[in-house]
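Before going further, learn to read the protein records used in this course. Taken together, the tokens spell out the fold as the letters spell out the chain. A record is reproduced here so that you can trace the correspondence yourselves:

***
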Amino acid sequence: MHRVAVLVVPPATAFDLSIPELVFGAVQVDDAPGYEVRVGTSEPGLVETLGSLQVSIPHGLDIVDTADTVIVTGTGARSDADPRVLDAVRRAAATGSRIASICTGAFVLAQAGLLDGRRATTYWPFSGELVARFPEVDVVGDVLFVEDGHVFTAAGLAAGMDLCLHLIRSDHGAAVANAAARLTLLAPTRIGDQTQTVTSPVPSTRAFSLAETRAWAMDRLDEPLTLADLAEHAHTSVRTLTRRFQAETGLTALQWLLHQRVDRARELLETTTLPVDQVAERSGLGSPDSLRQHLLRRVQLTPTAYRAQWRGTTAARRAASRG
């Protein structure tokens, strides 16, 4: 079982702290839990949060020694991190663990020197501070998450969920990640370079929303959907649809459709034996050449190589469970 160690640096962001157990805990692989999540801090016991809550943290920093992935969650202490925490994440990185941060947890990784020479992000109000304090870090502002080698950094709040789904997708494929997304009521695919911020105001609860139109489109990815089709379903103009789609998703409608179709193709390659031309057709990508082009751009693998990789992963996983 993949072991995830979540490190808490007080005062902790309670929402960020809850994310790894929520998302990784929803993963089932071959009818068994796919991840074991343990939460630790330098002084186990009650830990202060940025609000009025206190949370009880059961483990110490020794959980990193057996972890495959180490995640540092958001913290109000963006300087003078506990040297014991810094040593723990350095030790984990040195032994090959995957390292990640959510929100201001990036400041802990930066203090540990793990972001030097790497691309990284954090919650957008703190991007300027990260740039000023750590000039050796290539800060990428206003994106959901960044992957640089074995180090991953996410923006604040819900972007941490997107990062966890991305890690699940990397470990177990699109089908498992999408199942976890459905169980946690998350959007199945939000790519890392999608923008954090939205320039238009958040609509009221009675305001126009494209959620039903997006769900309608997800059921028709194999059809040649156009902006006019989406606008007709939403009972609005193409111009309004375009503006609202960007505001609600951070992507244009056509970008969003493409990402959903590539993800559908990945799921079909993982879970079926359909020929590549049928995968391209059923995912709405049209032709094998189009599927190949978009898959190479997304995961640097051809359809055949992608399918072989996930068949090999599944076979190895089942062999390990039998052993």
